[in-house]
Write a structure and sequence with these properties.
By secondary structure, the protein is of the alpha/beta class. The chain has helices at 3-19, 21-33, 38-47, 49-53, 70-98, 101-117, 119-150, 166-177, 193-203, 222-230, 245-248, 251-263, 278-285, 338-352, 357-366, 394-405, 426-440, 453-461, 475-485; strands at residues 156-161, 183-185, 210-214, 234-237, 270-274, 291-295, 304-312, 315-322, 327-332, 375-378, 384-388, 412-416, 443-447, 469-472, 491-495. The mean pLDDT is 89.
């Protein structure tokens, strides 16, 4: 075989891979959304074959675009090399056997077409090849961050986990503690070992006195991993419920995983529990470490609680009390009674670190509404928007509808694609969601015909007017429908927004 033939085959292969880069990046994006886990991505692929292998696609609105991080760049390069090899190898082998350039060229073209079509599965292969390399790189970042925390004996670390409410609680804790300390929060939903490692390595400075770390998980052992990294002295359990049930399988596994945070606390650490949550109550009762309990019920057993609660469409007022008998009136712009639980968690962490009730109350007043979590937006048209588009769950939907019911003027409209990642209970949970919507809303806009069928059935079970239900394909169509039916003072709730790796 001549060197020239080899070069021609390789050049054609490389150029072909370059041309198909747009298709490649679509699936690189999906791998990134699935946390670079090949098994999770392959599961997505099996559930989205039509979307993956269709060669004529509609342009989709991307909510969370591909970020070409160093890891994404490495995977893209690995996929590029693997694809080029797959394209070139058959043609070169056939040419070697037959010494026929035309036959070799035909197999080269077949290789190009095959790689283009099967790009979704090839990138999974590249992810598998890169896994041991990435694990080694990640362990280096992890150990560096872990050692940095170990050298900071002056640093107080607050770890927060729960099925829901952990991101809101994180920002609340950070805001209240900022009354007295220099605080670093993990940004947005950075709650994985690599997310925390990045924040610790890049953003934690010598003058930070408190580090507030959100800790997320989709399977047993993951909270332990992030807890061993951040080494919190205060651990907060906000809630336990049926979230990520597809991967956890049952509530018992969720309880075990969340409790890993408490197990990893040092002997002088303090565990903070939402005692009103039935699953957390069981964990709190078996805990013999120092603990602080918060809630609204069974106040005789609580260390921090709220009474005389007044919830309005503009926020809430309540009296914050502790078991020593002290109290103070607090006001917040956060919507919904459920947010008072998150504020109580913040009050517990703050009291442990020495803040007075007066300082805690001032911090609560300064807490800003958190984006995509019951965030109130007033539009130029006079229509009120409630943005609750972040990862909905059964408890969250009830809380959002409760907030919507507080509005006394205008008609109530909900836009939702329903809830996901609830495993076998997904259909029944969405049916109940539909029943609850029917009790509160005047108009309903369902995004996606197939996934929202249980919601529609729930609405029909409440004898909801079918003329007031609109089924659309995407958020753009939903927005257009809102424009046709709304008028000033109407209230529109955006409840959940499916991520880019979910479709009909």
């Amino acid at each position: 075989m001549s060197l020239m033939i080899i070069i021609i085959f390789l050049v054609i292969s490389v150029v072909s891979v370059q041309i198909m880069s747009k298709r490649t990046k679509e699936f690189l994006h999906m791998v990134q959304l699935e946390g670079y886990l090949a098994d999770h991505y392959l599961k997505w692929l099996s559930m989205n074959k039509k979307r993956a292998y269709s060669l004529s696609k509609e342009e989709m609105t991307i909510k969370k675009p591909l970020v070409m991080t160093q890891r994404a760049t490495r995977l893209n390069r690995a996929n590029f090399i693997l694809s080029a090899v797959i394209i070139a190898l058959p043609g070169l082998l056939i040419y070697t056997i037959t010494n026929n350039t035309i036959v070799g060229g035909v197999f080269l073209l077949i290789g190009i077409a095959g790689v283009y079509y099967y790009q979704p599965i090839i990138i999974a292969g590249a992810a598998m090849i890169m896994k041991p390399i990435e694990d080694n790189i990640n362990m280096g970042f992890y150990r560096s961050a872990q050692n940095k925390i170990k050298t900071r004996e002056d640093l107080s670390v607050v770890g927060i986990t729960g099925s829901f409410g952990k991101t809101s609680t994180k920002f609340i804790v950070g805001t209240i503690l900022s009354q007295k300390f220099s605080v670093l929060n993990t940004p947005e939903s950075y709650n994985t070992p690599m997310g925390l490692s990045k924040v610790i390595n890049n953003d934690l400075k010598d003058d930070h006195e408190v580090f507030v770390a959100e800790m997320g998980a989709k399977k047993i052992g993951e909270i332990r991993e992030v807890a061993q990294l951040a080494q919190p002295k205060i651990g907060i359990l906000t809630s336990i419920g049926p979230v990520h049930i597809e991967t956890f399988k049952n509530i018992d596994n969720i309880m075990k995983t969340k409790y890993e945070l408490i197990e990893e606390l040092p002997t002088d650490g303090v565990a903070v529990f939402n005692y009103d949550n039935e699953f957390i109550r069981k964990l709190a009762d078996k805990t013999f470490k120092e603990k602080m309990l918060y809630g609204l019920e069974n106040v005789d057993k609580l260390d921090i609680y709220a009474e005389d609660i007044v919830v309005t469409e503009n926020g809430s007022e309540f009296t914050l009390r502790d078991k020593e008998g002290s109290s103070i009136r607090c006001t917040t712009r956060l919507l919904g009674k459920h947010n008072i639980y998150n504020l109580l968690a913040g009050a517990c962490a703050s009291k442990i670190l020495g803040l007075t009730l007066e300082e805690i109350s001032k911090g609560i007043e300064k807490v800003e509404p958190i984006e995509h979590r019951l965030n109130l937006i007033e539009s130029a048209s006079g229509v009120i928007i409630i943005d609750d588009a972040f990862n909905s769950n059964p408890v969250g939907t009830k809380a959002a509808l409760d907030v919507l019911s507080q509005f006394k003027e205008g008609r109530k409209i909900i836009v939702t694609p329903g809830m996901i990642e609830l495993g076998e209970m997904e259909e029944s949970a969405n049916h109940e969601f539909g029943v609850n919507i029917g009790k509160v809303c005047d108009f309903v806009i369902l995004v996606g015909e197939q996934r929202t069928k249980p919601i529609y059935k729930g609405l029909m079970d409440t004898l909801f007017n079918p003329s007031n239900i609109f089924i659309v394909n995407n958020l753009q169509e939903a927005t257009e429908q809102i424009g046709r039916i709304t008028k000033a003072k109407d209230v529109v709730l955006f409840e959940n927004d499916l991520p880019d790796n979910y479709s009909e």
